[in-house]
Fold:
Amino acid sequence: MRRVAFRWIAGSLATLFVASCGGGEPTALPTPTPPPPPPPPVLTSLAVTLSSASLITGGTATATASGLDQNGAAIATGAVSWASSASAVASVSPNGVVTGVSAGTTQIIASAGGKQAAATMTVTLPPVTSLAISPSRDSVVIDAWGDTAALAASVRSQSGTEVPNASVRFQSLDASIATVSASGQIVSVKVGATKVRITASLPGVPDATVDITVRVALQRNAACRVPVTVVRGATQGVPAYGSNVIFLPGITATTWPGSRSLGVDWDGDGDTDVLRLEYMFPSSPGPYLAGVTRLFQNNGGSFSDVTTSSLVNTGGPDHQRDFEIRDFTGDGIADVYVAVHGFDASPFPGARNLFFSKVGSSLVESAASTFTPYQRNGFTHGSTSGDVDCDGDADIIEIQANDNVPSNLFLNNGTGRFTLAPSNAFPPASGVQRFQEGELIDFDNDGDPDLYMGCKSSTVCTGDVLYVNDGFGRFRVARTPALPAPRYTPVHALNQVKSADFNGDGWPDLFTFEIDRPFTTTSAIRLLINQKDGSFIDQSTAWGLPASCSAEMIEPLYIRDMNNDGWPDVLLPRGCPELGQSGGVLFNRGSSFSYFAFTNIQPWLLFDEVTPADVNGDGKLDLLFASRGGDRLWVRTP
Structure:
């Protein structure tokens, strides 16, 4: 029988010996393969540690990054880059230095070996023990009559950091000079100087204050002419009118119920010629005539019709409403702008305006090529002209009563070519309020013409408005000037307005025709006296004007010195029975008017229109009465 023997060797691999019956040596089995070595450590995660998790603005802290390998053992991170998720709250340098910038929270982010980690940093304001105000400007200079300027202020603590939760108050130390709103908007009231006090407050901290000087001035464009006060002598009475009557020849048509006869030296020979504009005004809608224009040349006091030979006209007038006679083209000869509104009844088709100037030996109508853009179908109810930008030439404002057509300011280039001013320079062009008359008036005596605009009879016209000019042709609402309340409410309209210094104080006043509605039987003649502080008062009664007229005052209003005494007088058309059935002259006495009716010259002088013109070259104004049967020129005696 065979025996098998086994030997185990503790602590080592056992070797199995097998005994054979042959009695040979034992055989060793193969040795097993050892296991592979563990992998090298690699960066598996990052962690960011802040020396402080909170900072005050301006303070610093240190950020460090640490890494762990796949076995959770610490490992070097290698190069680390740093970033802040909100650098406006805290910034971090390439070396991990964190600086507080403003109150808030941000993440401080470390990046290394393709891994990222972040820690939250909170930044707070330092405790405030005192306040300091940093105003947006050290001083303010603004124009008078409602000019504005914005004032702001930042508040900082004793450390120079901003304190956004501090309250800021603005106060004018003299609100009669300038006011200031809660948000720091300064509005001028009148010429002078004051201060705006800024106060900063924070609970538990003393207030801080700073005063800003505000100067309100009449800022002038240096090119604008400063007004010169004229010393006037004593007022004179009514001049003598003789029996010398001159008729314009060839006016026999009775189909023209309306006309404007304008005195203008169109040929520049020194005497007054006549441009006559005739139009049809039917009493009801239907066919109507477009009108004709005629030109009469003055030859030493006698007139000849030169319409055919000297007038180049592209179309007749269609109810002309206002006009401007000035040298617009810069050639030393008067030109004529005519505001035309067309058929004055439904459907109100509108009409084109006219512009006449001397070209060669002719008077040429050229509005279509003179104005850019040219208004072909507006309802131009009024006009006024003057050098609004003080560049040496006369500009034109056309006042549209059409709700769909804006009023416009046309700027002259110096040669009689007009372009539209930007709407932001001329508020009436873009406002919802509608006007129908206006007058350029330097109400603040600073050398540039400001603008008075009178209402159209409509509920959207809340009142007449004064616009102040900055001297460069840019207008804004003059908030401070006070105008008297309208004579008629709740709606009223202005039919005519002209300006002159009636009381001789060197400041221009206003003379107006006011109505309550179109085609009314009631109107008011008003004299508004300039108070030199941006306000006007109604002195109509004190100057002897009636409280109202039982007719519509509508025809052209002329302000002229009719008796050569240096005081402006007023020519009134027929229309105010309370003054007399005919038209007449309000002669200025310096503090009142005396009325002279045209019927005192001849009892049949009851014409609707009268034009002052020096016909015979003697330096005295004569009277041109417009009529259908022939215009009469009544010449004054020496």
About this structure: The radius of gyration is 45 Å.
